[in-house]
From TrEMBL, chain A:
<dbReference type="InterPro" id="IPR028896">
    <property type="entry name" value="GcvT/YgfZ/DmdA"/>
</dbReference>
<keyword id="KW-0032">Aminotransferase</keyword>
<dbReference type="GO" id="GO:0008115">
    <property type="term" value="F:sarcosine oxidase activity"/>
</dbReference>
<dbReference type="InterPro" id="IPR006222">
    <property type="entry name" value="GCVT_N"/>
</dbReference>
<dbReference type="InterPro" id="IPR023753">
    <property type="entry name" value="FAD/NAD-binding_dom"/>
</dbReference>
<dbReference type="Pfam" id="PF01571">
    <property type="entry name" value="GCV_T"/>
</dbReference>
<dbReference type="GO" id="GO:0008483">
    <property type="term" value="F:transaminase activity"/>
</dbReference>
<dbReference type="Pfam" id="PF08669">
    <property type="entry name" value="GCV_T_C"/>
</dbReference>
<dbReference type="InterPro" id="IPR013977">
    <property type="entry name" value="GcvT_C"/>
</dbReference>
UniProtKB/TrEMBL annotation, chain B:
<dbReference type="GO" id="GO:0008115">
    <property type="term" value="F:sarcosine oxidase activity"/>
</dbReference>
<dbReference type="InterPro" id="IPR038561">
    <property type="entry name" value="SoxD_sf"/>
</dbReference>
<keyword id="KW-0560">Oxidoreductase</keyword>
<protein>
    <submittedName>
        <fullName>Sarcosine oxidase delta subunit</fullName>
        <ecNumber>1.5.3.1</ecNumber>
    </submittedName>
</protein>
<dbReference type="InterPro" id="IPR006279">
    <property type="entry name" value="SoxD"/>
</dbReference>
<dbReference type="Pfam" id="PF04267">
    <property type="entry name" value="SoxD"/>
</dbReference>
<feature type="compositionally biased region" description="Basic and acidic residues">
    <location>
        <begin position="94"/>
        <end position="115"/>
    </location>
</feature>
<feature type="region of interest" description="Disordered">
    <location>
        <begin position="89"/>
        <end position="115"/>
    </location>
</feature>
<dbReference type="GO" id="GO:0046653">
    <property type="term" value="P:tetrahydrofolate metabolic process"/>
</dbReference>
Amino acid sequence: MSQSNRLAQGGRIDRSRELSFTFNGKSYRGHPGDTLASALLANGVDIVNRSFKYSRPRGIVAAGAEEPNAVIQLGSTEAAQVPNVRATQQALFEGLEARSTNGWPSVQRDLMGVIGKLGGQFMPPGFYYKTFMAPASMWMTYEKYIRKSAGLGRSPMEKDPDIYDHLNRHCDVLVIGAGPAGLAAALAAGRSGARVILADEQEEMGGSLLDSRELLDERPADQWVAEALEELAGLDNVLLLPRTTANGYHDHNFVTLHERRTEHLAETAPRENGRRQARSRLHRVRAGRVVLATGAHERPLVYGNNDVPGNLQAGAVSTYIRRYGVVPGNKLVLSTSNDHAYRAALDWVESGREVVAIADARPEPVGELVEQARAKGIRIIPGAAVLEARGQNRVTGARVARVDLEGFRVSGDAESLDCDTIASSGGYSPVIHLASHTGARPTWRDDILGFVPNLVEGVLAAGGTQGVYAIGEVLADGWEAGSRAAGDTGFDTVEARLPNVGARNEGKPVALYQVPHEKPTLRGPKQFVDLQNDVTAAAIEVATREGFESIEHVKRYTAMGFGTDQGKLGNINGMAIAARCLGRSIPEVGTTVFRPNYTPVTFGAVVGRHCRELFDPERYTAIHQWHVEHGAEFEDVGQWKRPWYFPRRVEGRMETMHEAVARECRAVREKVGILDASTLGKIDIQGPDAREFLGRVYTNKWAKLAPGRVRYGLMCKDDGMVMDDGTTSCLAENHFLMTASTGGAAAVLEWLELWHQTEWPELEVYFNSVTDHWATMTVTGPEARKLLAEVTDIDLDREAFKFMDWREGTVAGVPARVFRISFTGELAYEINVQANYALNVWETLIAHGEKYDLTPYGTETMHVLRAEKGFIIAGQDTDGSVTPEDLGMHWAIGYDKPFSWIGKRALTRPDTARTDRKQLVGLKPRNPEVVLEEGAQIVFDPDHAIPMPMKGHVTSSYYSPTLGSGFALAVVKGGQQRMGETVYLPMVDGQVHEAEIVSPIFVDPKGERQNV
Amino acid sequence: MFHIYCPYCGEYREEEEFHPKGEAHIVRPEDPETCSDEEWGDYLFFRHNPRGIHHEMWVHAVGCRKFFNITRNTATYEILETYKMGEAPSITAESRDDRAAAEAETAEKQEGVRA
């Protein structure tokens, strides 16, 4: 197909090369420098999508980020699929494959279109709420079909082949937008020596100057752009980021910039010297000052059938002609409220095509551009506007009439004009999205008929963003903002040097948003306000009639400004219509809040490298490699990888977890086992007041713990609830080693620091994490002493080295601390050595252990063994609502300690003193085969009507090979007084388990085995 | 994301380095045993939640591990000062009365247009 709309010359495209691409499976050709949109227009493609709700054919209307219709799906393979790309922002590359996101079975022949046409009255605003919300249970079904017909693109189902980077950056001045204001600001700040980042979302920097009719220093504007960019590129303190969108403006001048590095080259990032390149970069910028030079979006007029392909924005027409050498039609009618839009007609005529007429809403159009149009013989119809477009798949004509703006009515007879293109302009809306992200509300200005941003500290705005549109003033405004930003961040500003621009004689614009029609809005042809979300002027009118007066409610009821569009084209028109219907002014109606992101960002860019193996750090113990080599299955505990169990090959097959754990449990109870306990949190505490401090943060007493002794401690919050537990050893009079649970170690250290720094700074005490410095190996079981004796010089005599003692010496030839503490209830030694010796020590123990059947065991066996002994795990058997008394640990509470330790006072509050609190007990299922579910609810009366009063829940539950039955720990209301009673556990499947309340200590209740 | 000046490090750092720890200047009663249940309950559970000036405690968790205080405007997220543990804020809701009133007035005008 030929490029029928391509001009013979002009534009910033490389005509020496051709690129081929496909759209909806059909092949087309374009040039380097084209966007997908300009190439489609060059090839005369009118319909690019079907609309969201009514399924009407839609064409390209804009030339930039504000494009609402040409939202397309990219990708030739499944892995390369990218949804929600604006064709106006996608550079053309060889082999590009694009599809419409909407339209089934095709955009040309759309089944839904029939429904949409029939169904105007079937789909009023709030349609989804009114029709589909009831019954609620059917919503998921409705939604599936709505989405299928609505399209909106789809994500790839295969793994993304590309990589993405995140970069942290700092600068003095961040300039967003590289049009005239942004370039001037960057020059001013850059020349002052400030560190400047200049980011611009387009393929080329220059903004409106790239398609401007203006002369700068008597030369075409793009020449000045080229010189400015060359100078900026030569400054070491300036970073230029083209193809980079500032998507979010966050607190304290933190701005996220999304730089697309390869999307203009190919659908997946090409390799450079054989290496993968990042497809995009997310720059996380902390700026001293931010200059918003984001310009303004032209506001289309709202008239009948203004969505038929061939209706474009006036500015976009100029852009396509001047920048891409594409005229998107043959016969143009222009409908405008201002001078600026006349450029579209002038550019059209100069391209050798026909301008049928200009309908100017102003009764007496004056101004330089108006005169130029008159001089070219273009017919100008004053005081008029296009009421309605004709045509279905393409504009075939326009009805034009005089309109009475004050009275909102048509005041003359309509005239039908044949044309294939209607361009419209209702003036400009400053792009205030980023300023709005900061939470600052914009201010309406009647003189420019638009909202301008209110700026929080550290932000400046320049040019179109501020409602300044004349090119000379824009340059000066940009320079001023750049200078101020540099000055604010401590740089000496330099004298302004800017090109000369002749002042234009401009006529004043009039306020026109919705064009009146002969018929009332509700009866006339559809007048679209938000093309992407298919919101019409009638819908807004209905919303206001139904009582939605707040613009936020109107937005939600009609969907105006939703989705990827974020109200770029339609919001102001929508507010103006709501204001008209409510009899208020636009500032009284206010504006909705714009949110990040300004344009869609791929998940890849958001995630960066934080995925797969780099998603979260993994922590390994010093013995990890041995576990891997010996077939351990691993469990995640916080960020740690801990051996879960060590399955063996038995009789030609691998053990199940149940079999492996049963074997490991028996080994510990009958012979000896070894556990890698290195992940246990270890905090080194030193200082003359260390002992006093321990007495305040633990519930029990520490005053008399002698060097060489170890004690179990419970830690509460000041509300009296258990937060952690562990042992602390006295290493010397002023030196202790505290252990904390693997998952809670960091929080415990912060907790200690909190109390020391904020409540008791007078205590001299110091804390340090030594978790990674020491590796811990637990050797436990009846044979533990014999095994350890083979490799240590420490006297292991049961009288010399008692339970809850620790000794220093060597193990396997390296310095070690050995703690005689037990989490299994068996004779146990916890051997601590420097982490880098650990693997050797472990292997030495394994070698010597062979004759004792030494069995490595994992966390699952550890849990079974500790639960058999009734030892709690903080965070599993407690949940922040359990006191030491609830746990039956009265023995660990030092009520008579002199200092009112953390948690003490709360234990006598009426609620914590209740006797019917949930208390820790053991549960023995009546059926020994049953292993209760952790989390299962406990009731006293299984015959009670539902809802049954819930009296507790299971916190830990396992099968015990030692007991030959299932057993559990649970919390039960008043449980300590209910020993021997039967409770019931109704399950989801209808079964009701019976269990007896017993002591939580199932094995060796007197604790004799650990003392042997 | 906040940009927070750590008064101990003497530098601005990213919010990612810090943990928020709630309202500042909550003093643990000198003698908890003589507190009534109500007084103890107030200390444990009751906190202010102002719109405007708020003093809050943060910790430079992956930096110097020091706790310190921030005076922050909860409406604008502006951090007005940071100061060391044990120091008094130089900016308070009372000292900012005029400004707060002006802000409240602005906020009033914007009611009804919030998402």
